[in-house]
Structures are given as structure tokens and as C-alpha cells.
Design the sequence.
């Protein structure tokens, strides 16, 4: 076989002669040069082909490799890697949202948030996927944030209910039987107290407790047999105006509300103070979410709970149905919907001080085997009540200055994007029994509708490129301008 | 600055002249050829550099990109992707073990196990990560496996205890106070029945129930006050020989054992029947684990439970400590250890028939919030007992012909490899009350010590390349040759 290639080279003069011949005459010159050029051309082509093949294979190009036939390692091990790359690469870098691994409760991992400094991160629960990172902020940074918030001024997170609701209720065109049916969760023809409690909107911002309900029943003589249960007959006999009159006349204090705290918002975008910028960068590193997703999220919320303050257990974001709009992407899509929620994929909560008494963050049903609203809210004990029942929840986090906790309010959709609301993410702020509690919240907004989120990011990038005047009209921070005065 | 390079080219003749000159005389010839060669050399070098850069960047080489400085999307979004690639790529394709996402209990996803056919996969629990895939096997395949197993012949999975144990126990040089201390789990100075039950080895293959313990106490008069609790004083007064005599004289049937079933092993490697090969290929696609990991795992175990058969709740694999050896990698590492386990990362269980009565697979503590051995084993109810308490477990899977269920016996270590044992993976086979139950098990063996697993795979690949004679000595299947007769 070698004979086919050999004759040519055997006709050539020995190497030394050829090299010498290159300087010699015309015919030798052209032949030598031809050989040199040809060698270069071939080496060049071979190298390009080899590199192209390398690029092809290292980028997962063997999509059609048949894995069913042979048991060899190299070909059959690859498909999953390729699938993974493909999944991540579809539609650019921000179309895949990485999710941290919790492994198991108590699992500790090291993370690098700033160069050359390692932080510990501990898994606190898997449902929701919840982590704790001590010393995320320095004492100085915590104090700076409190100071900045105080300079800016805080406002009540919730105000006392107004009368509008009463009139609205009175004008409601809905029969008593229908109201009864809506409230009768288990459809047993009886209204248990816990069924009334689950409809927290009935309180119109007031937090309703089993005692409240019993007092109200007594005041309007709703439950003559006093068994705490309303039958349809008892309900029909009621005069709803009596209810409203009772609610209207009852004195309401801040402690009776769902939330008793004050808060303000701190801008973190370009041009913000270095501490605020740096926190945002650390949040990007912590969550591993695309930077532009984090950069286009809500500003930092700083919250103060005075002694006696609380926030009953709640979800930071709502369930998502096809017709639900997200507050942040609504800016660019111009869609309006009866259902709107804040689409907060991730909550990062920072403790800015050590609280003298109380003020823990509670996750009453974290890691429960199943989610049952009705086991959460009993006739006598409502686990969502953070003024009374924080001690009965599954998980409580004690505030420690500088510590960050973060969790996912939504599950994955199994395709690298936001899926269903994680009901186990229910959480609240326990009663502050002594001293003041300062925290800050960073919410990372992602629209579960991927196309809308990508469009939103694209538009935001486009406006950021335009001049600063037009940009100002469009940043998410600016949508908070009614509650936000630049410092 | 351009002037420095320009003069030379301005001295050159116009392009047409030069091209014409190439065919002309001696001096022109050598100069033209020189130009051509130089152009090729430069183009070649530039192309190689460009391709190398492309390879570098597309493989995630920008490790040192500074993400802390700017808010732009393109640079800051990328690190996680790069990290992901890096993680997967370290040490070749089999050094990263993908893990499926469970999302939440009840979550359904479509998977393609054979070309152009989709299967449904449902998440049954997150702790352990457990999935169910109906119609994984066809009815024909199920019947084939049963037929093959019958042809080959099955043997008892566990045999009745022998006397050796009795003598071994009698020769044990350990004081009664030390035995008491070992058994006294909560160190309260009293032996509760559940504390005796947790030490299942005391039974030497016999399954011990609270009733057994009470009968035994009564027979040897161990518990004069009859409160079911032994104090150290009561324990010291005992004659251990009485215990052994009692245990030795008691009639033991198969139903008293931990496991009452028969099984055999079916070879699935190269040259095996197409049905067995095809099942292995589907398992590779299902688990997305590297093919060579699956190919070098245990053969298929086919198990028959007759009416009255059971398998009390157990773990398919043991905990792993640094000194623990894996049965499969021991073949190549030649390490021996007092601790050895089968290192079954994944269990794939196939139901081969519909069982007339009973025979469910139970996961008594699946998705429990916490794992507490002592809440699993009570003084009166031992949730591991699949003859009596299957109805009280968290999760029960009814056998349906062709359905596969699979779960991870180990957690992830957070770095794409096998981590700690998942204690929630405890499972058993409920009592078959009527008819026969046929199942098959595929275990995927992975050494939690990554270096040992990679060495094992490398050695297996090397031996597979050698001639068939030497290969036969080394396949894992062959390590089962004492219990395996080729069909």
C-alpha cells in the first residue's frame, strides 16, 4: 500500500539538495516552492478540519448519534450533556434560570460572593428551597442601610381600613346562598370558623382570628346555638348590615392588621451608592440568576418593625394562571388583566440588626409532607397568626445582623424556567416583643411567561441604550416613583 | 504609525503585474512565491488563532471575567453557564451524574425512552426522589422475563437462620453492661422495646416484632414487673443462654424472616437477549446516567413473592463512610474493608404482573419532614413491618404490570456526584395476600468515591478491549457467577 505514495518522494532529491536547490535555478525553484506551498495548503486544510470537528464535538453536535446500539462509553455517555447544553442555550443566556441545589436540610456549602472570600450557606428547608448565609452584609453595611432608610423616611406598610369597603359590600349583588357556597370550603352545608378564616379578604386588611369571629357572631346573634358553626338557615337569617356596622364600630389598631410595619424603597441601579450596587452584585452571585434579570427587579425594600410589630404569614407572590399579568412586565407588554401579581421568583431577606425580643421569620409549613390549607388553619389555632402561634410553626429563623436568607417562591417548571407557586413558601414576621427589628428585602422578578420576560428584558436593554431621559421613564424602579423620592 | 508598515507594500508592483510576474522570470518567480507562501502562512496562523479563541470561548474559558463591575447582560449572565459546563466537563463525560428534577409530588413529565414514543413519568415523592413510569415494559416483555427466570430457576432470597450465630453470641467477650449501653439508644438507663427492635441484627435474619420481644421476656422471665422495659438491674440478672435457648427452640418459618421471596439474576451485557439489552438501554435513557455506569452495574434481579411473601422495609444500599468499600469497585481496586456495601445509587423496580391481593411497595417515611428512627419504630407499631403495618406508611405503590418505579438511594453531593445515603428511601414489599407477585430490580452501582468509580470504569473498558477470555473474568456480572448459570 505504501508503494502508491512512495514513488513520488523517491523521485525527489534528498532534503539537503532540495534546500540548496531552492537558492539555485528556475525549474528547481518553482518545484520546491510548489511543494512548500502545497504542504502548507494541506496542513492548513487538515488543521481547519480538525479544529472544526473539535468545535463540533465539544459543542454537542452529535445529536443523531445512535445510543441504542452499542454499549461503548464515549458515545452513550454524551446525550445527557448535550441535552443539558441545548436546554440552556435555547434563546440565549437569560432563557435558562439556574436553581441552587438544597441536597438536604442542614447541608452546608461554601460560596464565593466577593472575590477571595468564602461564605457558608446552609439549607434550611427543601419546601420551600430555603438557604441561610451568615455575614452576607457587614455591620457597617447594615447600619448604612438603616441610616439611608431613615434619611429617606419610612411609611406605614399598611394603613387602617377605610369605609369604602363597607359600601362596596352593601352594594354587592350576590345572594346569601351564593356567599354561603363560596365560603363553604368542604361543601358540608355548614360554615366552620376555619372556613371563614381562610377568606382573609373578608377582613379587608384586618387580621381575623377565631376569637374575632366568635365575638362578631355573638354581637350580631349569628350563631344562636353557640356551636361556632353557621348552618345555611342561620346564615340566611342574618342581616349583613349588622356585620358591617359591627366591623365599622369596632376600634381597629395597627396590631389588628395583617401587617404592622413601616418601609421604604432604595434604588440599586446604575449610579446608586456603592453599598447598594455591591449588594445587588452579591445577590446576582448568590442566586446565579442572569444579571439583567436581577438588575431589572424591584429596588431594595427596607422595613422597620417597632415593638409590637408583626407580619402575619403570607406569600410574597401570587399563583400564576395563563391570564395573570406580572406587575414588572406589564410595563412593556401593555397587557392588562384582572389578575395581577408581583411575580417575585426569589426573595432575599437581610437582617439588619439583632432584635432584642421576638421578630423571628417563621415558615409555618416548611417541609410539611403535604400542603393542606385546612390543616394550617384550624378552628382554634391559625398557624398563620404570627402574633400568637409562631412557636407552633415548623421553622423559625432568629434575626442576626448581616445574615441573609433566601428562598424560591416558585417551583421550577422542569425546563429551566419558573413554574407553579410553591405553597410551602408561606412565611411571616413574628411579633417583635422588645426593641426594633430592621430587615431589607430584595425580590427578583421573573415572569412565568418566558416570552414576556424576554421581551421585557429586551425592551429594558433597548431603553437603557437610549438617552437617559427616555430611560428614566422606563426603569422598574421608576414605577415605584409615587412611593419613592430620590435621595 | 501606519507609515512604518506602508513603505514596503508601496514598493511592490501592482497586483496584476505581480500575478503576471509569477509566470515570468527567476527573480520575480521567487518573490511572487514568497508572497504567496507568506499570505498562506499568515492566513493559516490567523485562522488557527481564531478557531482556538472560538473553542476557548465556546467552552467557557472566560473564567476570570469580572462580573462585579458592570451591569451589562452579556458578561454577567454567563458565569453560571460556564460554571455548569466546567462542572460537567471535569474529568470527562462520566464524571458528572445528572439527577432528574422531581419539581413536586404529582408533577408529570413526558420522556422519550424509545424513539418516537413518549412515556409519562410522575413524581411520587421528593424524599426519596421517586418516579413512576407506566408501560415501561410491554406485557410480552414482562412475561418473557418471568419465563426466563423460571427456566433459569429461582432460589430463596433468605434462608432460615443457622446455629452458628448462637455459638458466636455465646463466645462474645462483652460485658452485659456494655451490651446494655449499646442497646440503650436514648441513654435513659432503660431498655424500651423499640430500642431492642432497632437492632435488627439481634434477630439474625429473624424479623423481630414487639410481640416477639414480649414473649421472649416472658419465656425467660426477663421483665418481672411486666412493664415492657428492662432496667440495667433486670438486664444484669438475665442468663443470656436462656435467650439463645429460647430463640433456638422457637420454630421459625419463612414468614418470620426479614425477606420471604425467591430470586434469580439475568445477565444484560453484550450478547444477552434483545429484550434484556433493550431494557438496559431504556434504563440508561430513563436515568440519563452515563451508559458505561449502567452497563457495569449488577444484572437484572427477578423476584417472586408467593402468597404470604413479603420484604420488610429496608435500604437497598448502606451508608458510606470514608473507609467503606463498594462491592462492585472492589473488583478493580483490590481494597478490602470491614465495611462493605453494594453502593446502589439508583433502584429501578419493574412490576411484571398484576398482583391479585397485596404486594404493594411501601415507602413508610417518604417525604416526612424529618427522619427519626425512633418515630418509625414505636413500642407497639414498627412501621417497617410490611406484614402488619403497610397501611400506616406514607406512600404505597400498587403493582401494575409493565410499570417501572425508580428512585435514588443516595443524595447528590452538590458537585454532580453521589453524596450521603437518603434515609427516606426506606422501602419494603407488603404482604402478598393472594396470588403471586413478580418484580425485577435494576440497580445502578456508583461508588461514592469518584476516583474509585472512574478507575473501575477505566479498568472495565480496558478489559473489554482485551480478548473475550480475559474479559469474562472481570465483568461485574461474573462476580455473581456463583449464583448465576448462563442460559
Sequence:
Amino acid at each position: 500500500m505504501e508503494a502508491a505514495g512512495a514513488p513520488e518522494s523517491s523521485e525527489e532529491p534528498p532534503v539537503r539538495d532540495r534546500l540548496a536547490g531552492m537558492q539555485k535555478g528556475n525549474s528547481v525553484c518553482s518545484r520546491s516552492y510548489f511543494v512548500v506551498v502545497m504542504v502548507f495548503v494541506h496542513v492548513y486544510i487538515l488543521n481547519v478540519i480538525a479544529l472544526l470537528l473539535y468545535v463540533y464535538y465539544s459543542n454537542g453536535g452529535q445529536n443523531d448519534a445512535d445510543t441504542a446500539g452499542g454499549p461503548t462509553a464515549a458515545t452513550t455517555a454524551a446525550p445527557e450533556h448535550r441535552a443539558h447544553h441545548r436546554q440552556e442555550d435555547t434563546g440565549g443566556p437569560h432563557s435558562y434560570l439556574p436553581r441552587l441545589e438544597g441536597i438536604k436540610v442542614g447541608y452546608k456549602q461554601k460560596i464565593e460572593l466577593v472575590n477571595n472570600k468564602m461564605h457558608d450557606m446552609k439549607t434550611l428547608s427543601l419546601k420551600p428551597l430555603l438557604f441561610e448565609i451568615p455575614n452576607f452584609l457587614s455591620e457597617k453595611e447594615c447600619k448604612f442601610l438603616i441610616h439611608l432608610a431613615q434619611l429617606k423616611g419610612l411609611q406605614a406598610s399598611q394603613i387602617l381600613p377605610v369605609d369604602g369597603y363597607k359600601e362596596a359590600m352593601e352594594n354587592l349583588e350576590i345572594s346569601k346562598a351564593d356567599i354561603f357556597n363560596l365560603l363553604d370550603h368542604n361543601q358540608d352545608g355548614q360554615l366552620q370558623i376555619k372556613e371563614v378564616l381562610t377568606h382573609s379578604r373578608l377582613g379587608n386588611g384586618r387580621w381575623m382570628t377565631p376569637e374575632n369571629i366568635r365575638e362578631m357572631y355573638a354581637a350580631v346573634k349569628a350563631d344562636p346555638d353557640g356551636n361556632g358553626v353557621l348552618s345555611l338557615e342561620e346564615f340566611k337569617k342574618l342581616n349583613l348590615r349588622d356585620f358591617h356596622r359591627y366591623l365599622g364600630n369596632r376600634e381597629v389598631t395597627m396590631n389588628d392588621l395583617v401587617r404592622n410595619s413601616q418601609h421604604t424603597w432604595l434604588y440599586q441601579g446604575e449610579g446608586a451608592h456603592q453599598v447598594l450596587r455591591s449588594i445587588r452584585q452579591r445577590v446576582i452571585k448568590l442566586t446565579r440568576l442572569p444579571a439583567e434579570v436581577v438588575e431589572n427587579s424591584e429596588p431594595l425594600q427596607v422595613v422597620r418593625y417597632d415593638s409590637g410589630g408583626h407580619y402575619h404569614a403570607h406569600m410574597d407572590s401570587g399563583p400564576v394562571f395563563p391570564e395573570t399579568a406580572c406587575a414588572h412586565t406589564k410595563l412593556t407588554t401593555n397587557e392588562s388583566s384582572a389578575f395581577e401579581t408581583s411575580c417575585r421568583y426569589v426573595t432575599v431577606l437581610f437582617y439588619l440588626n439583632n432584635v432584642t425580643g421576638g421578630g423571628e421569620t417563621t415558615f409555618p409549613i416548611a417541609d410539611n409532607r403535604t400542603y393542606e390549607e385546612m390543616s394550617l388553619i384550624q378552628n382554634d389555632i391559625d398557624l398563620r397568626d404570627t402574633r400568637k402561634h409562631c412557636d407552633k410553626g415548623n421553622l423559625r429563623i432568629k434575626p442576626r445582623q448581616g445574615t441573609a436568607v433566601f428562598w424560591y417562591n416558585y417551583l421550577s417548571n422542569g425546563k429551566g424556567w419558573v413554574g407553579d407557586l410553591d405553597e410551602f413558601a408561606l412565611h411571616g414576621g413574628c411579633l417583635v416583643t422588645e426593641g426594633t427589628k430592621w430587615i431589607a428585602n430584595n425580590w427578583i422578578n421573573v415572569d412565568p411567561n418566558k416570552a414576556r420576560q424576554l421581551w421585557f428584558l429586551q425592551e429594558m436593554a433597548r431603553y437603557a441604550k437610549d438617552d437617559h431621559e427616555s430611560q428614566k421613564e422606563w426603569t422598574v424602579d421608576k414605577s415605584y416613583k409615587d412611593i419613592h423620592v430620590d435621595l
Q: What stands out?
A: Chain A has 17 helices and 22 strands. The first helix of chain A runs from residue 6 to 11. Residues 1-25, 58-91, 478-487 of chain A have pLDDT under 50 and may be disordered. Chain A touches chain B through 76 residues (CB under 8 Å).
